[in-house]
Design a protein that fits this description.
The chain has 169 residues and is an all-alpha fold. It contains 8 helices and no strands. Helix 4 packs antiparallel against helix 8. The radius of gyration is 17 Å and the shape is globular. Bound molecules: zinc ion. Zinc ion (ZN) binds next to helix 6. Zinc ion binds next to helix 6.
């Protein structure tokens, strides 16, 4: 699922209501143009995924495993739902990502080429998920994420969407 989104960023932002990113509104005022909405939504989604993947990557290393499994990604995404609001540089990152998306779109328009991220050959993952034995805060969060998740009541529209999507993984 992650890969699909990265390969085809356009796919994601078609049906999202601009209201769903109101939690970012301090930086994204007056969403007038449709393109602007698509770029804003896209940037939030991409930053969200990037953060989740980074956490999953750290967790896997602490668990002394070599490959990120779907379960690591799922837990990383869950954790990011909790982290999202408290990330101090979220807005900045989204602005950066927005610029990247703009560049991709412009590049596509100029060259008529679809943008692909480096296609990593999927070496079939043999490694299975196992919980980290490490005692650090990150590993602790990953290990106990399901109990936090079950007690979580989404409030923001964006949270509702994310919770629904993650539960289906
Ligand atoms: Zn750890």
């Amino acid at each position: 699922m992650i890969k699909k989104v990265f390969k085809n960023p356009k796919q994601y932002n078609i049906e999202m209501d601009p209201k769903d990113i109101t939690f970012m509104k301090s930086g994204f005022n007056n969403l007038v143009e449709e393109n602007e909405v698509i770029e804003n939504t896209g940037s939030v989604v991409m930053v969200f995924m990037q953060n989740a993947m980074q956490s999953a990557d750290i967790y896997v290393r602490h668990a002394k495993r070599k490959e990120i499994t779907p379960e690591d990604i799922k837990r990383g995404l869950m954790l990011e739902v909790f982290f999202m609001k408290n990330r101090p540089n979220m807005l900045e990152k989204c602005e950066e990502m927005k610029q990247t998306i703009k560049d991709i779109i412009r590049d596509e328009q100029e060259n008529g080429e679809t943008y692909y991220l480096d296609e990593e050959e999927d070496e079939e993952g043999n490694e299975e998920f196992s919980e980290s034995k490490c005692q650090c805060a990150m590993c602790n969060c990953f290990n106990t994420i399901y109990s936090r998740w079950e007690n979580f009541t989404p409030q923001l529209p964006m949270e509702h969407i994310l919770v629904k999507a993650i539960n289906e993984i």
